[in-house]
């Protein structure tokens, strides 16, 4: 396991995330006995563009009820629950942060998906799964905290079946200068391990994958960010939002991330890669 992982887990650690989300849902007037994944989405889709990005990434390849999916860096589980609910597949999430995995399992129970979705705590560099187990591997904005990209993508390659696919959206290093900290994935420079888009693409290919799709969506992300900035700000912040996961400095983290994007300090890519039959 990488030596900085304890510090990274500490960056994400919050007290009783599931409890905070349950309380916020109640304040928002939601019936906890009739919750849906849409009720959770403002808090559990903890990545740029939230549910819209999850839907877009899911559309890049196929998912089906018989498939086993691994969500690497699963956070509090929004995308995993979306995949299970929408396509009927079985999803196993793995995340480095114990409080995330605990919250993910608790929220999955709340929406009645525990028979198809479960979460474990562990390192993406040493996953506790048999080789060739999964039909799909899913990651959304998670590799930023991992320095050893070859080992990460080699491990994902190991747990996929031949012909299985890795589908992802991720953040890459841009030419505009260093990060403005804090951002959602890093409180200090040592937490972040961004690489340029070309280096990330090469790391996936070098792990033994065949490219199916690769695209840079940085400009589309900037357009979305501009539109968000033009919207009137609510007088009262929403009860159910990603601040419940990212903590009290969420507004600053999000503002810094947006500034990094607009100044070309970071970029965004999406990809689909297939484990070659053999």
Sequence-ordered SSE layout with sheet pairings:
Elements: H1 5-12, H2 17-27, H3 37-44, H4 50-58, E1 68-72, H5 78-87, E2 90-95, H6 98-110, E3 117-121, E4 134-140, H7 149-159, E5 160-173, H8 197-206, E6 209-216, H9 218-230, H10 243-246, H11 250-262, E7 266-275
Parallel strand pairs: 1-2, 1-4, 2-3, 4-5
Antiparallel strand pairs: 5-7, 6-7
Number of helices: 11
- Percentage of residues assigned to helices: 25-40%
Uncertain ranges: none
Shape: globular
Structural class estimated from helices and strands:
alpha/beta
- Rounded to the nearest angstrom, the radius of gyration is 18 Å
Strand order of the largest sheet: 3-2-1-4-5-7-6
Q: What's the total number of strands? A: 7
Order of helices and strands: HHHHEHEHEEHEHEHHHE
Overall pLDDT level: 94
Could you describe the largest sheet, including whether it forms a barrel?
7 strands, mixed
N/C terminus separation: 29 Å
Quote the beta fraction: 15-25%
């Amino acid at each position: 396991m990488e030596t900085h992982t304890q510090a990274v887990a500490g960056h994400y650690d919050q007290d009783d995330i599931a409890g905070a989300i349950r309380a916020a849902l109640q304040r928002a007037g939601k019936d906890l006995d009739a919750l849906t994944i849409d009720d959770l989405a403002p808090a559990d889709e903890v990545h740029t563009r939230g549910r819209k990005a999850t839907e877009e990434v899911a559309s890049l390849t196929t998912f089906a009820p018989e498939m086993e999916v691994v969500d690497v860096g699963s956070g509090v589980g929004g995308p995993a629950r979306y995949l299970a609910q929408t396509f009927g597949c079985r999803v196993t999430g793995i995340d480095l942060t114990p409080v995330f995995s605990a919250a993910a399992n608790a929220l999955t129970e709340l929406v009645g998906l525990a028979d198809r979705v479960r979460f474990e705590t562990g390192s993406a560099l040493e996953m506790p799964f048999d080789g060739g187990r999964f039909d799909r591997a899913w990651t959304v904005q998670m590799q930023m905290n991992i320095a050893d990209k070859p080992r990460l993508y080699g491990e994902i390659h190991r747990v996929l079946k031949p012909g299985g696919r890795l589908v992802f959206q991720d953040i890459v290093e841009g030419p505009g200068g260093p990060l403005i900290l804090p951002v959602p994935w890093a409180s200090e420079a040592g937490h972040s391990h961004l690489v340029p888009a070309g280096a990330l693409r090469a790391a996936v290919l070098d792990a033994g994958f065949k490219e199916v799709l690769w695209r840079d969506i940085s400009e589309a992300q900037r357009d979305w960010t501009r539109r968000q900035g033009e919207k009137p700000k609510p007088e009262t912040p929403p009860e159910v939002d990603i601040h419940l996961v990212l903590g009290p400095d969420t507004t600053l983290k999000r503002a810094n991330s947006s500034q990094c994007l607009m100044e070309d300090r970071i970029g965004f890519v999406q990809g689909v890669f297939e484990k070659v039959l053999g």
